[in-house]
Amino acid sequence: MDPLLVSFAVTVLVLGMVSRLLKRHALSPVLLALGVGVLVGPAVLGWIDPAAAVGRTRLLEELTRIGLALGVADIALQVTRADLRRNARRLVLLLTAVMVGMWLLTAGGAWLLLGVPVGAALLLGAALTPTDPVVASALAGGALPKRMLPRRLRRTLQTESGANDGLALPFVLLAGLLATETAGSAVAHWAVEAGREVGLAVVIGPLLGWAVARLARAAAADELIGSSYVPLLGVATALAALGLVHLLGGSGVLGAFLAALALSLTLPDVLRGPVGEMLSAASRLGVVAVFGVFGTVLPWAGWLALGVPGLLFAAWALLVRRPPVAGAVLLASGTGPHSRLFLSWFGPLGVAGIYYLAYAERYGLPGYERLFAAGSLAICASVLVHTLTSTPAVRWYARRSGTERAEGESAEVEGPLP
């Protein structure tokens, strides 16, 4: 355990020392944390092997669940009522038609290229449906994106990724049940399970966030809360929602997002600032932990066993999973061509994909290790490729759409997305 703590701490320190430089390259912290995990893990130096002590599935599922909760809460706390109002139509399409399309297209690629049964293909497709909140926040929150991308575009990326991580659970539930039960039984079982999971999150999450915000306002007005405790409100709310909703049988990740969203919409600006800063810092720690540990459990032998079909599936996940369906659906929302291309490309895989891959093992499907190998390869390919293309894509968008700004200026465009 000590080598793991040392590796984690050193990675955080390095990221902190060069954080201003890394902000110019939206996804570099994610890639660096993943690389550190590979380096210190059993595949290279062999200093740590946390999965051997805890168990890979349990380790990944629990760690990513907490990391996801902090990541989606970080996003939600940045969203305002105006952001929701301006992006409502686009977000509804992204969280409905585009999610369904991504699920089915990814499943089709798994069935066609990997030769897995339909049920297993649907399960893998569901696990890889949600976009990553950590990666989306890096893309939208860096110095270059803030200068080059309109606020509406950045908030669309962030809010979609925050919400679809919890909303992906019904897809995973349906796919897992279809793979293990008869169709009629699976659908009936799914209706109950999905209704409970989402319903509890929708009810408890916002109520908890609203209650915390109201109590914080009253405590601040009566000078009952110390300034050193204010920043902890966001982290505590996210973790409380995660644990409470999950304990009652709901989607804790979705509950954490909705709790933080209610907190953001209710807290006064004077409190939201310090709360958001602490939540962002905690989310960064989660990034290092999740991707660092993920790097130590990558299935190198499984990747080799997949061969060319595995590489083709990873390419499918990058090129076919999102761009075609998002491009077609966003055309109906009135989104301009440049924004449509940008949003269609940036649907990166990450923490949510890792979480649902680990979650999927509970269904006990034969050949699960092949599914994990294919899914983890697609996630790593997405991290690498979206890292390399993020800065060029931001600059391309700014040049083509006219949102490029000089150093120190911000592209806070509020009109229609170009």
TrEMBL record:
The keyword Transport applies. It is a multi-pass membrane protein. The chain crosses the membrane at residues 30-48, 91-114, 120-145, 166-192, 198-216, 228-247, 300-320, 341-359, 371-389. Residues 11-396 form the Cation/H+ exchanger transmembrane domain. This is Cation:proton antiporter. Pfam families: Na_H_Exchanger (PF00999). It is found in: Cell membrane. Keywords: Antiport, Ion transport, Membrane, Transmembrane, Transmembrane helix, Transport. InterPro entries: Cation/H_exchanger_TM (IPR006153). It comes from the Bacteria.
